[in-house]
């Protein structure tokens, strides 16, 4: 078997702080991804494929294709592979792994399964869940510069006008499910001659206080519910004023 080294071509060693298999699992990697990645260190399948189930690895592995030169343990590549495994994972299995991280980050009474659905395809390792969902727990103190988006043609001034305009529409909306909200806001945008993104960007900013979120405005509002969504939009209006 080839020697496995770190990015600096030093032999992996616990003494130098390199991770063991158990450490990687504790860091939020899934066992199958680690096994898949390690199997590819110094061995290359004939078709250069990268993602294998254990059964497929057993089938494809051939020691004649092993390299004698040292193989570098690339954590960036392992993270990518882990993310691919999480994306492809059965939802119930993913939820069982994600639930402890979600419960730590979100203690309020929100539907954690809905939040898990939003983050499933957006994380590479499980601890990344926290930074993706912490705004559900508490709206961060954000900079109004977030309301500026060149492509959506929004800025703080236009966002203030838009939020004031759309607030009564949302106050009158009873069904706060994603689909119903999207239809209402799309109709609102069409009637006003706005592009949908012009309406959604200020709303998503107001309800999340973040530049990047695991879902769009209406998906986030469905999780937050009507009262909390409206509270955050009103806070956004105050901030912009």
Describe the structure in your own words.
The chain is mainly alpha-helical and 241 residues long. It has 3 domains: 13-87, Glutamyl-trna Synthetase, Domain 2 (Glutamyl-tRNA Synthetase, domain 2, Orthogonal Bundle), CATH 1.10.1160.10; 89-137; 144-240, Orthogonal Bundle (Arc Repressor Mutant, subunit A), CATH 1.10.10. Helix content is 57%, strand content 2%. It is built from 11 helices and 2 strands; from the N terminus they run βαααβαααααααα. Strands 1-2 form a two-stranded parallel ribbon. Helix 8 (156-172) packs across helix 10 and helix 9 (178-192) packs across helix 10 (196-208). The longest helix is centred in the C-terminal third of the chain and has 24 residues, at 217-240. The N and C termini lie far apart (65 Å).
In short:
This protein has helices at 21-26, 31-39, 54-60, 75-88, 91-105, 112-119, 129-137, 156-172, 178-192, 196-208, 217-240, and strands at residues 4-5, 71-72.
The outline comes out as elongated
Class of secondary structure makeup: mainly alpha
Helix content: 55-70%
**Total separate domains:** 3
Number of strands: 2
Question: What's the rounded overall pLDDT mean?
Answer: 93
Provide tags for this entry.
mainly alpha; Glutamyl-tRNA Synthetase, domain 2; Arc Repressor Mutant, subunit A; 3 domains
Task: Explain the layout of strands and helices.
Layout: E1 4-5, H1 21-26, H2 31-39, H3 54-60, E2 71-72, H4 75-88, H5 91-105, H6 112-119, H7 129-137, H8 156-172, H9 178-192, H10 196-208, H11 217-240
Parallel strand pairs: 1-2
Helix pairs in contact: 2-4, 5-6, 5-7, 8-10, 8-11, 9-10, 9-11, 10-11
């Amino acid at each position: 078997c080839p020697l496995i080294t770190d990015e600096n071509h030093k032999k992996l060693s616990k003494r130098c702080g390199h991770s063991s298999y158990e450490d990687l699992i504790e860091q939020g990697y899934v066992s199958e991804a680690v096994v898949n990645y390690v199997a590819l260190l110094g061995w290359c399948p004939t078709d250069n494929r990268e993602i294998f189930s254990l059964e497929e690895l057993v089938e494809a592995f051939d020691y004649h294709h092993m390299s004698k030169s040292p193989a570098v343990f690339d954590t960036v590549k392992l993270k990518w592979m882990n993310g691919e495994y999480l994306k492809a994972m059965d939802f119930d299995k993913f939820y069982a792994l994600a639930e402890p991280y979600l419960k730590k980050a979100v203690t309020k009474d929100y539907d954690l399964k809905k939040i898990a659905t939003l983050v499933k395809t957006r994380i590479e390792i499980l601890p990344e869940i926290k930074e993706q969902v912490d705004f559900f727990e508490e709206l961060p103190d954000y900079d109004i510069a977030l309301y500026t988006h060149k492509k959506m043609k929004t800025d703080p001034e236009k966002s203030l006008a838009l939020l004031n305009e759309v607030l009564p529409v949302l106050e009158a909306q009873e069904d706060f499910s994603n689909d119903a909200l999207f239809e209402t806001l799309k109709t609102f945008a069409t009637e006003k001659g706005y592009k949908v993104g012009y309406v959604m960007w200020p709303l998503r900013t107001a309800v999340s206080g973040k530049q990047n979120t695991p879902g769009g405005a209406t998906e986030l509002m469905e999780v937050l519910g009507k009262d909390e969504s409206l509270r955050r939009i009103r806070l956004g209006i105050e901030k912009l004023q």
